[in-house]
Amino acid sequence: MSTNQPEKGLAVVTGASTGIGYELAKCAAQDGYDLVIVADEPRIQDAAATLKEFGVSVEAMQGDLATPEGVRRFIAGLDALGRPVDLLMANAGRGLGDGFLDQKIAEAQRVVDTNISGTIALVHSVAGRMRSRGKGRILFTGSIAGFMPGAFQAVYNGTKAFINSFSFALREELKGTGVSVTCLMPGPTDTEFFERADMLDTPVGQGKKDDPAFVAKTGYEAMLDGEGDVAAGWKNKVMTAAANVTPAETLAKQHRKMAEPDDSRN
């Protein structure tokens, strides 16, 4: 683990009931941080019960960070604890497969509200307080998908392109303040993402995926080291580098081969 760790304190993890978010919370708990975890499902309480076994304090909140009211309630809950946030891991996210015109617009909008609107609203509040203290570390869960025009996953990839870009911009703005910003950019990971996004009938949904514990540890350690970004695994690093020099039209065609549902293919 990094020798540049901040003093142990409070870590906040969003989307922490399962997958990468749960594993990020586990990393922090193993490292001695007390936790505040949040998700929009009751399983957040099961996650809290398991994480308490590491001997740290765990506060679990069920809330919908895709809504302004959900964000306000969560921030009020943080305020009620009376403790500063040392680590903020903004991991909550939502996917959606299929062609854009075949998606329900309410579901597409919810992806934007979860991945972008709720995320930046929460970060604006917490990061502002970190800056005032002159101390804190922020980890965004972006994606290598943000480097590719996401045919048959267009809204999701667009939101991750935003998060990837936003994290670098915020990192630059916060230089010299004592607050660092890191972007974790996973590839396909073995979580419930593809089932929830209705993508189990796609090549990427059926293909080999990374271990969420490995992905989370990679991002967590990069955050503690103050790195700007990290792609988990050599294959994802290669894909990210290739995407930077490949025409967007070619990337969109490649993504179609990965994400197009069985019943949409000719």
TrEMBL record:
A Pfam family matched in the record: adh_short
Domain Ketoreductase span(s) in chain numbering: 9-191
Gene3D superfamilies: NAD(P)-binding Rossmann-like Domain
InterPro entries (alphabetical): KR_dom, NAD(P)-bd_dom_sf, Sc_DH/Rdtase_CS, SDR_fam
Alphabetically ordered keywords of this record: Oxidoreductase
Annotated family: Belongs to the short-chain dehydrogenases/reductases (SDR) family.
Name of the protein this chain belongs to: SDR family NAD(P)-dependent oxidoreductase
Native source species: Neorhizobium turbinariae
Organism placement in taxonomy: Bacteria, Pseudomonadati, Pseudomonadota, Alphaproteobacteria, Hyphomicrobiales
